[in-house]
Known about the structure:
Chain A contains 23 helices and four strands. By secondary structure, chain A is mainly α.
Amino acid sequence: MTVASIIALTVLLLAVTVLALVLRPGRASTLEFYLAGRRVGVATNACAICGDYFSAASFLGVAAAVYVSGLDGIWYATGFAAGFVPVLLFVAAPLRRFGEFSIPDFLGRRLGSGRIRLIAVCVVQLIILSYLVPQAVGSGITWELLVGEGVLGLTPYATGVVLSTVAITALVVLGGMRGTTWTQAVQFLLLLAAFIWLTVVVLGSGFSYPDAVAELDSEPLANPAFAGGEWGLATESNRLDTAEPATFGEPGGRYGPFGQLTLMVTLVMGTAGLPHIMNRYFTSPTGTAARMTTVWVLGFAGLFYTLAVLLGTASRSLIAKSVESHPWLAELTVDGVLRVPEHAPLVLGRIFGGEAGLGFIAIGALIAVMSTIAGLLLASAASWGHDVYERHINPSASQRQAVWAGRGAVIVVAVFSAALALGLRPDSLTALFPSIVATMVTWAFALAGSALAPVFMLAIWWRGTTSRGAGAGMITGAVTAIGMFTSATLTGDNGVGEVLLAPTIVAAPLATLVTVVVSLCTPTPKDVDRMWLRLHGTAADRRAARLARLTIAGVGGVKGVKEDRSER
Amino acid sequence: MRDTGAPSPLNDDDGQWAAVIGDDYDMPADVDASFRTVRKVAVGHFAVFLCVVVGVPVLTLTVDWWSGGRLIGGMSPSFVMAAFGLYVFFFALAAAAATLSNGVEERMLGAQEREPVDESDDS
Lengths: 568, 123
């Protein structure tokens, strides 16, 4: 590790700490701690959502998936971006207008049931853990490559896991949603800057994207495999045409006839059920702002994933050519192909920027991990601290007690996820799953899309949804998704295994069906009309907009506002 | 239905009470009509989204040129669509849907607040 990298890491950690201290909630209020006072603007919230969403799976995993599987790996990026279209169409505005603290809180209030809130808390915690563990794995991988040394007797991998978890837990405990929002927004801009820098230097070196695809496509796709006690390259079979080998630029390297579709459905549906992303919509001042925030997110996501795919392709093309001129690549590669595909953007950074370049990209990776961990920990805190402690265990809790319950939950969940990540060794799983980080995140999406998203959308768009129906639907979705994952370990990822590994295409319709059937057999909540006004009316939006105009205009501007109303 | 969100009466320049804020409310019938229209917008855009997202894998399985043809260098139409085209499509679709939904809500809700103040009404 270079001095530049050490300085950059230190500055990053200091900046995060200072931001958390400066932006920490001024008073002990759950509205401030969990929702930043509901005053986060469109551009800031869009950047923060991107910081939250673009995890290690996006920063390292997408490029890794493209590196390993070529065209089929791109579908991870497409699915991650596509997920925000249904969020915009069906979720963002009504969710914000209803205005609770979390998904379980929303479902509990909308369906008038404490029990449904608790069921949702269980599902949310499962999703958060499935998402947290790969982030911690990503930080361990990055530290291992960036620093290569451990501290206090820990391995480099364990040091990365522990240090990132401790740093970001401190940020969340101190800064709450306001501190986290601003650090996530800044972190996203840094992530984007890292990718833009790498793209510029790669293209500046004479790299031609279309020519690289043509060149890679001219030979069979082969990846490292550990067999017979040693590493070697194994040609990937073409899952669409078994007579031909798989190639980089054509489909078949990873998915059979249904794999692409099942992955897309899983990622598209899953985004609408991700607790850390949906919670961010509650921080928007209005439903309209939440909707426009999603448009910005889609713009940022398009740019970010386009660059990630380009860099995955560039890594595949350029790393193999650089082995001779960069001897340090020998221990990371097998015949010019990386053993751990998540190393691809990091290695590319080192080839083109030396140790400083590696440091910059590695810090980008750590930032991606940290900002997502922060969002997940906050979502977990809202779930335990607000939905369980404040609503069920101690309903008469003071604001201070509720905030401290949330902080305690942050620490417990962080320790648990770090412990799970320490039990995993990514290189031992590479043979089973080509990109372990992206694959594990897909499990979280599958659970969210199977158990939460169908119920969530029905509660927003169908008056007849009842708490019993929603409970039955959530349990059905969760059990089906987990059951199918478990079955996939027996069948592998070919044929029916493709559906079992991305089970939303089966589990979500089943959850929807069960929710509808059980809801039709049970009475709807009495005050559904009032709920509908909150969900789909815009009175609160208009009041917030008018208040904002008054705040800007000041008392002297009141008359102007009145005149403005008359003119309209 | 009257919104119960704690209105703050303000005084205008003449010291008269002016109900500038806190007058925002939605009628259930208006909300229902707006809800149905926004739902049509959402479902319509989602149908287009679904056709494109499902259409790409279907084209992969059914049209050889889609995966085997070359558009730019070694990039097939399938590669170009996955690497660039779909992101542009998602953004354009989202911008159109958001603009339309916002316009529908703007036109269909809050109309009573936009009615001109009747100067002769002393009540």
